[in-house]
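Here is my example:
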Amino acid sequence: MPISPKIQARGIQLLLSGVMTRVHKDLRLTDIPKHTETLQVETGAGRVGCTVYRPPASADTSGRPAPVYVNFHGGGFVVGRPEQDDHICRYLAARAGCVVINVDYAVAPQRPFPVPVTQAYDVTAWVVENGPAHGWDGSRLAVGGHSAGANLTAGVCRTARDRGTFSPLLQILDSAPLDQLADPATKHSPIPKPLLAPGLMRVFAAAYVPDPADLAHPLVSPGLADDLAGLPPALVITAEYDRLRDEGDAYAKALDAAGVPVTHRVFEGVDHYFTHTGPVPAAKEALELMASTLRTAFAGY
């Protein structure tokens, strides 16, 4: 008897839960900032925990509240470990001079689509609306994430545009899955054994999107949408060896064709998750690219 996608996904949660928190020792940051805070946000799909990282006091001499960046972690929509992005959140808080909100959204198979993207949008909307009470400037907002988190980022930006609620100054898409409809076996890599195996990708997709009719939904597969005009400026990061590279590259081109300002960087000689496990020089370069692009986006407002 075939094992159901839910059971497979639960097994992967148990297997990868610890692995997904591993970050190369030379990328770990524990002293910037020295302290973090936690808060709970009520959403239309349940309460969501968030970790708040604040920039050093010297980061902004204007006297205004700091801008804010909302981060969504990866994990194939199945592994819920926001701490995997701790080094990114600390780096961006320190180097981009912004408050960073790291979102612990719900994951499949327990909470499949549309719960994670609903929570991601609702948390971001809450961040925009509640800046004065928490010491950040919700009008100077950016959003971003790695892998599944980058997919949620695209969904947040699309939903905000369609509802006319808020407009992020920047979206950061790092190694994003943007086409969930295509069979993962058709997503090629120039190396024999890239990190993402087709079988694993199928389990992720089946757990997150149990109804195949939803696989082409623009909040599931943003790369299949043809109405991209009006989305926020984007930084799109792709990795040469990643099976997801082609769809990331294509999305960057489509955004540009739709008139969306895009910075697109393909990092050579690296695979999916390189911003966490290295090679360290490429990972550090990617983190600084995120920080510098954020600084530029925030500086104009």
Q: What stands out?
A: The beta strands are 36-43, 46-53, 66-72, 99-104, 136-146, 170-174, 234-239, 262-267. The chain has one domain: 5-299. The two ends are 58 Å apart (CA to CA).
